[in-house]
Every structure is written in C-alpha cells, then in structure tokens.
Amino acid sequence: KNEVEQSPQNLTAQEGEFITINCSYSVGISALHWLQQHPGGGIVSLFMLSSGKKKHGRLIATINIQEKHSSLHITASHPRDSAVYICASGNFGNEKLTFGTGTRLTIIP
Amino acid sequence: DTGVSQDPRHKITKRGQNVTFRCDPISEHNRLYWYRQTLGQGPEFLTYFQNEAQLEKSRLLSDRFSAERPKGSFSTLEIQRTEQGDSAMYLCASSLGRGRTDTQYFGPGTRLTVL
Known about the structure:
The structure holds 2 protein chains of 2 kinds.
Chain A: E1 4-7, E2 10-14, E3 19-25, E4 31-37, E5 43-49, E6 52-56, E7 59-64, E8 69-74, E9 83-90, E10 97-99, E11 103-108
Parallel strand pairs in A: 2-11
Antiparallel strand pairs in A: 1-3, 3-8, 4-5, 4-9, 6-7, 7-8, 9-10, 9-11
Chain B: E1 5-7, E2 10-13, E3 19-24, E4 31-37, E5 44-50, E6 53-57, E7 65-68, E8 75-79, E9 88-95, E10 105-106, E11 110-114
Parallel strand pairs in B: 2-11
Antiparallel strand pairs in B: 1-3, 3-8, 4-5, 4-9, 5-6, 7-8, 9-10, 9-11
C-alpha cells in the first residue's frame, strides 16, 4: 500500500521568504502531483511530474525517483500564496491519487 | 468549457436520509474520479470511471454508496441512509484518461453535513 507523507504540517513565514514543502512516498508511482487547496475546498493542480524539475512562475517542483521524494518550492512568497498544499501520488494504470495530509502555509505580510 | 462542476455545493441532511450528488466533468474527459475529504485530512479515493464503466471502488465505499456514470458523461454519487460519519467534502475530478498520465481537474466539491 502506498503511503504519502508531507512535512511540515503547518508553516508560517514572512512575505518574501523562500518556502520548501517536502513529500515522500513509499512505492513506485506513475507521477507525483502537487495541488493547492484554498479555504472553501477548491483544488487546483499545480504540477504533475515523473522526473526532474518543473517551474511555473515562482513555483518550482522537483522529484527524486530513487529516493521517492519530492519538494515544492515557492520563491519570494506572498500572502496570496497562503493555502493548503497537497502532494499526491498517481497509481500506475488507473491513475487514482493517494494524497498526503497537506501543508497549511500562511504568509504574513 | 468552464471546468468540472458539482451540484449541490452544500447539502445538510438528517441522519437516515438519502442524498445524491452530481458531477459534470470537462467534456471529452474519459476518466472521472470521486474522492472524499474529511476535515484536516487529505482527500481519499472512493471510485473511478473510464467512460461509463466503473472500474474500481474503494473499501471506503460501503454498500450504502452507489455511483453511476450513464453514457459516460455526468456522474452521480448516492448515499443511502446517511450517517453522521458521512459528513465530509465530496470531490469529483476528471482527466483525459487516454492511456497516459494526465492532470486531474477538480470540481469545487459538495460539502455534506449529516445532523
């Protein structure tokens, strides 16, 4: 059974700080997804990656397949980045997602 | 196309009542997933469809739960004889699902409260 663990569970930082959220998983996966969830429940897909690194604006996601580990970085953090960030592993074949419990990020102006 | 939609957004019901939720995926998306999220937790997989075929159901989905996707378009999730433990956010997601790893697009969710 695949398990997905995230750290930290909560993170508070000052505006402008560099943010790192970590994710580890226990078995081989088809892809690792990073998702953002705002209060009220809406979930937005940020990245889907199976190797290397992806960048979108101030967000960077990396994955190390051998170590079964991924990180999400936010550069020059802003209060609007405050949200819950969730990593999820995709299962080979049916692509159903196994989710971590999320990291609640709060950026203070 | 405006994305994945779910209806209703909120549902309050009394224990023992039946409820039905609807999900409209992005058109031409072949795969549709249902997930459930309780407070403070990440979502958990419930079931998924490839077109109209329901291919997998989680053990979380007791016999009080049933899901359908007639004609491979919208999907419904019905909970019979609701219990307080069913209170959660029910999320629907869709993806192209054409034999490759795809991004899943999530709907806004239906928040169920069972009194």
